[in-house]
Design brief:
- By secondary structure, the protein is mainly beta.
- The chain contains one helix and eleven strands.
- It has two domains: about 1-40, no CATH class; about 45-180, Rieske [2Fe-2S] iron-sulphur domain (Rieske Iron-sulfur Protein, 3-layer Sandwich).
- The strands form three sheets. A five-stranded antiparallel beta sheet has the order 5-2-3-4-9, with no helix packed on it.
- It binds FE2/S2 (inorganic) cluster.
- FE2/S2 (inorganic) cluster binds near residues 94, 95 and 114.
Length: about 180
């Protein structure tokens, strides 16, 4: 069903290129179209993080932004002690401070420089100064949101939606990307 925010002109892309027509010029400058494209195409897309070589050691943290400047979401890729890669939000779950500001190795996880909240390499909030008396703390909401990460060759990619929620065009096939979608 067509998104209600989209203007009435037709900009279907015909499957047969011989029958395709040039899309309406308004598609290029309509703010609603831009918003819909962001949500439907770019948020669930796979975006490049780095080559594996840029996370050279275990306990390595690599901060990056998802798709600047249109989706400037701060994320951090981690190579854990088993040599596996993970991707998390790089925003502290306390007051939103950015956690990693440069690539680094840390055996103690990420420590927020604002009030000292500490996160382990699996994104769990493991320590917060002066919070011993707080009830029901920590909870899952204090952990860093996790994002999917995939390795293709020597390159790492992530998406802002869970892998299970990706639209078919962005799904992985036998653990590899369909390059035609990029
Ligand atoms: S903002 Fe990170 S501990 Fe407060």
């Amino acid at each position: 069903m067509k998104d209600k925010r989209l203007p009435p002109y037709d900009f279907e892309v015909h499957a047969n290129i011989a029958e395709a027509k040039t899309i309406h010029t308004a598609v290029y400058h309509d703010a609603n179209v831009f918003q819909v494209l962001l949500e439907k195409i770019f948020v669930p897309s796979w975006q490049f993080i780095a080559s594996c070589d840029e996370l050279p050691t275990e306990d390595f943290y690599f901060p990056f932004s998802f798709l600047p400047p249109i989706i400037d979401e701060p994320l951090v890729a981690v190579k854990n002690t088993e040599g596996q890669f993970d991707c998390f939000s790089n925003v502290c779950t306390h007051r939103g401070n950015i956690l990693a500001t440069e690539a680094c190795t840390s055996k103690h996880g990420l420590i927020c420089k604002y009030h000292g909240r500490r996160f382990s390499a699996d994104g769990k909030m493991v320590f917060m100064p002066e919070f011993k008396e707080v009830q029901n703390f920590p909870s899952a909401q204090d952990d860093l949101p996790r994002y999917p990460i995939q390795k293709w060759g020597n390159w790492l990619f992530t998406s802002l939606v869970p892998q299970s929620a990706l639209p078919p065009a962005y799904a992985l096939h036998d653990g590899t990307f369909e390059l035609s979608y990029f």
